[in-house]
């Protein structure tokens, strides 16, 4: 069995651990390094790398991207030709990771989103070792336990899917809250408004995923000619596409800035 060591296991690392444990993975195959010592539910938690009891087969980088250059030398001492580096760090490209961990068996990037905790995540994958089908075959079932885990043909494609899905739980949470607040503004009990908005978003996404129909068709089936939805969509459609585009553009710009920071380049 592979030993999977998280170096840094906060919001995202513990969401992944929760998903794997939900999929009946063996807790003994997982270790989390957390300097705070706060335990990650269900698995062994250590405070220093020196406490590991066996070499990691997969070393999962789960700290903040800004810490990469400071932490890499210490982490690299545990990397052998058999160790795979799995990085979830936003903005840390494979060229930088390859320079910091030159002896690793492989470098794999993953950009998970929070619903991995309930095995409904989106987690694009990228490795420069495209031709290494054995590597991909080894990792695919492991990552697929957490949700939709497509291999990307290029790091650009990986970045783009990451921007669509990685932060989306935060965007959707805002969207649901906005509907709930609008309901409250119309006199609804806050709890009732939130549950109604959340279930409506969940049910709509579920329906779309079940039927596989285009989203435009799903919307058409809701929209009676000259009805209430049509009146609402006229307002939403005027702003939403531009708003989403500007949202992703801001995240993309920040990712490029973080990548430059990680490489040690001066900010533009
Ligand atoms: N939160 C999210 O939805 C997503 C996060 N990510 C990436 O995941 C990474 C972690 O993000 P979060 O979990 O949100 O942050 P977080 O702040 O919740 O977790 C970071 C973890 O790093 C640990 N840490 C701090 N100093 C350390 C050290 N010296 N050695 C080892 N571990 C140390 C902290 O104790 C903490 O557990 C980031 O690189 C981020 O880009 C990627 C996709 C989505
Ligand atoms: O905000 C961040 O930097 C991370 C990367 C994608 C989602 N959260």
Automatic annotation (TrEMBL):
SUPFAM superfamilies: 6-phosphogluconate dehydrogenase C-terminal domain-like, NAD(P)-binding Rossmann-fold domains. Residues 155-258 form the Pyrroline-5-carboxylate reductase dimerisation domain. Its main location: cytoplasm. It is found in: Cytoplasm. InterPro entries: 6-PGluconate_DH-like_C_sf, NAD(P)-bd_dom_sf, P5CR-like_CS, P5CR_dimer, Pyrroline-COOH_reductase. Keywords: Amino-acid biosynthesis, Cytoplasm, NADP, Oxidoreductase, Proline biosynthesis. It is an enzyme of class 1 (oxidoreductase). It catalyses: L-proline + NAD(+) = (S)-1-pyrroline-5-carboxylate + NADH + 2 H(+); L-proline + NADP(+) = (S)-1-pyrroline-5-carboxylate + NADPH + 2 H(+). Signal peptide: none annotated. Its EC number is 1.5.1.2. It holds the Pfam family P5CR_dimer. Catalyzes the reduction of 1-pyrroline-5-carboxylate (PCA) to L-proline. This is Pyrroline-5-carboxylate reductase. It comes from Sphingomonas rosea. The lineage of its organism: Bacteria, Pseudomonadati, Pseudomonadota, Alphaproteobacteria, Sphingomonadales.
């Amino acid at each position: 069995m592979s030993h999977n060591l998280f170096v840094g296991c906060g919001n995202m690392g513990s969401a992944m651990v929760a998903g794997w444990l939900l999929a009946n993975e063996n807790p003994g195959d997982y270790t989390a390094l957390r300097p705070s010592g706060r335990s990650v539910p269900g698995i062994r938690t250590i405070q220093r790398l020196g406490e590991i009891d066996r070499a990691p087969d997969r070393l999962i980088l789960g700290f903040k991207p800004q810490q990469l250059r400071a932490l890499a030398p210490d982490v690299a001492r545990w990397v052998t030709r058999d160790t795979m580096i799995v990085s979830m760090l936003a903005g840390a490209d494979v060229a930088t990771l390859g320079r910091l961990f030159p002896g690793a068996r492989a470098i794999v990037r993953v950009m998970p989103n929070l619903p991995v905790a309930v095995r409904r995540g989106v987690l694009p994958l990228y490795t420069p070792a495209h031709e290494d089908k054995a590597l991909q075959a080894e990792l695919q079932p492991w990552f697929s336990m957490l949700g939709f885990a497509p291999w990307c043909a290029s790091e650009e494609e990986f970045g783009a899917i990451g921007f669509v899905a990685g932060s989306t739980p935060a965007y959707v949470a805002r969207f649901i809250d906005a509907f709930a607040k609008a309901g409250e503004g119309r006199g609804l009990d806050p709890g009732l408004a939130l549950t109604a908005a959340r279930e409506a978003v969940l049910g709509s996404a579920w329906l779309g995923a079940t039927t596989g129909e285009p989203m435009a068709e799903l919307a058409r089936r809701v929209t009676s000619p000259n009805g209430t939805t049509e009146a609402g969509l006229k307002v939403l459609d005027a702003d939403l596409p531009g708003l989403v585009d500007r949202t992703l553009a801001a995240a993309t710009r920040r990712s490029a800035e973080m990548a430059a920071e990680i490489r040690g380049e001066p900010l533009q």
